[in-house]
Amino acid sequence: MLRYAALAFAILAATPALLATPALADWDKARLDQEVAAIERQSQGRLGVALLDLKDRKSWSHRGSETFPMQSVFKLPLAVAVLQAVEAGKLKLDQPITITRKDFSLFHSPLAKAFKGESNDYPLRELIALAAGQSDNTAADNLMRLIGGPQVVTKMLRDGGIGGISVDRYEREFQPQVFGLQGFGWDRTVDEQAFRAELKALAPKKRSAALALALKDPRDAATPEASTLFLEALAKGNWLRDPAHAAFLDMVITETTSGPLRIRAGLPLGARFAHKTGAGLTMDGVNHATNDIGIVTLPNGRVFAIAIYLAGSKADEKTREAAHAAVAKAAVAAQR
């Protein structure tokens, strides 16, 4: 129980608001069935949602057992795996990790954007914060390489009883493969400008066919229900033994500015949200993924895990993110 509170999610902490929590929390499932089905139609994609009350374990889901591409959502379990390596004595939070230009990955990377020279050292804790808080692809790939690869993250999840989440490739590998191009192994330096030109030059039919396959790929994918179970274990302190490590990760994923128009936009004023987003490219009018998972603490003391995955949507970004907000608003309203 001490570890549970030490995670600093403000989950089930001893506060007056907790006293107002209903003794038998539940969801208005019929209402959610109807409202989320309507939201899915508006989203123009395949929408997966799971809700799990962290006090009474009452749950609800829509396509909850279906598999969805994670995109950057994987960086949250990755951060846990890195912190487990610290607790095992394999790494230290303040140890310097050397990154060179050859270690850059594709797409979003504040680290690469601010990089100077040919080589820089970063404290491990900074790389964790960049990956889990700012969704930095370079930081994430180098952290995953440092602990032994994607399979280490998946094994951690399996050992923790989570069978519906699979982390299989580095960002530099799977991002090109989503559209049928060759991924970058560690023996290849990422040339993002050349890659984008190659992607643009690819025949639209080939891109679309590859994306259709990627949307069904069980690799680097998760089910909404498994995601809420992972979050529940995180809130309970099951993944990390050291309260300081749990508090550090909580700070990172609570203070992130990522996805302000997704789940967070559907929560009431004063709600606390610790989360990780994920998003893929839109090509030929189809978006690979727009995701958000996290733990919500409401002003009345109710706490629940929420996972929303939207795959293959033909809607614009504003509409996709509005679907997240609408689901979150419906989830809060359906509590009883």
TrEMBL record:
Record field: catalytic activity: a beta-lactam + H2O = a substituted beta-amino acid
Signal peptide: 1-19
Protein's name in the database: beta-lactamase
Family: Belongs to the class-A beta-lactamase family.
Enzymatic class: hydrolase
Any GO molecular function: beta-lactamase activity
PANTHER family: BETA-LACTAMASE (PTHR35333), BETA-LACTAMASE-TYPE TRANSPEPTIDASE FOLD CONTAINING PROTEIN (PTHR35333:SF3)
Domain Beta-lactamase class A catalytic: 48-309
